[in-house]
Amino acid sequence: MRILYYDCFAGISGDMNLGALLDLGIAPDHLRRELAKLPLTGYTLDIRRASRNGISGTQVSVVLDPAPLPHRHLADIEAIITGSELAAEVQQSALAVFRNLAEAEAQVHGIPVEAVHFHEVGAVDAIVDIVGAAICRQALAVDRVLCSPVELGSGRVRCAHGLLPVPAPATVALLQGKPVKHGGLPFEATTPTGAALLATWVDEFTAQTAFTLHQTGYGLGQRIAATPNVLRVFLGEQPDHDPATEMVEELCLLECNLDDLNPELYEHVMNRLFQQGALEVYWTPVVMKKSRPGVLLSVLCEPPLIANVMAVLFAETTTLGVRQQRVSRTALVREIVNVTTRYGQVRVKTAHYHQQLVNCKAEYEDCKRLAEAFAIPLKVIYAEVNRAIAAQIDGVFPADILPPP
Question: What distances in angstroms separate CA 310 from CA 186, 252, 261, 321, one per listed residue?
Answer without folding.
Answer: 25, 11, 17, 10
